[in-house]
Amino acid sequence: MRPFRRSLGFWTALLTLGWWCSLQVAPACAGLAPSRVTGVTAIASARDADVLAVQRALEHKLVAQKLRDYGIAPAEVQARLASMSDPDLHLLATYSKGLPSGSDDFGALIGLLIVVLLVILILKLLNKQIVVK
């Protein structure tokens, strides 16, 4: 017994083929999603972005220590930063982009230690002897 009559199968196949062909012809609609400001961001202008970049550079331990060695208090640094002109602030932010922001490279040291421990573990699992002279 056949589930479809012959003519019903033909028209179903023809309808399916037509549907697939129409899907192939239809253009794809794509575009960029518009950006919107969320309540979390504090960057409203280029000056705010520059201030944030400089503040991140000033959070670094070496920079903070050097400023303390020169006798400049953190509150005085923030006051001078707020009173800087836009071109000077942008120049300072541009120069501070190469500096690490707020860390003391402790993560790199931990990463190197993990790699060394993994190499030692693999050598131990392969029954290799590690000799340090």
Q: How are the elements arranged and paired?
A:
Blueprint: H1 6-25, H2 46-58, H3 61-69, H4 74-83, H5 86-96, H6 106-125
Name some characteristics of this structure.
133 residues, 62% helix, 6 helices, mainly alpha
What does this structure look like?
The chain has 133 residues and is mainly alpha-helical. It has a domain at 46-125. The chain is built from six helices and no strands. The protein has helices at 6-25, 46-58, 61-69, 74-83, 86-96, 106-125. The model has no long low-confidence stretch (mean pLDDT 78).
In short:
The chain is mostly helical. It contains six helices and no strands.
The rough form would be described as flat
Order of helices and strands: HHHHHH
Poorly predicted runs of 5 or more residues: none
Major sheet size, sense and barrel closure:
none
| Cα distance spanning the termini | 85 Å
**Structural class based on helices, strands and sheet pairing:** mainly alpha
Spatial extent as radius of gyration = 32 Å
Task: Work out the helicity level.
Answer: 55-70%
Count helical runs. 6
The total count of strands amounts to 0
- Strand percentage lies at under 5%
Please state the average pLDDT score.
78
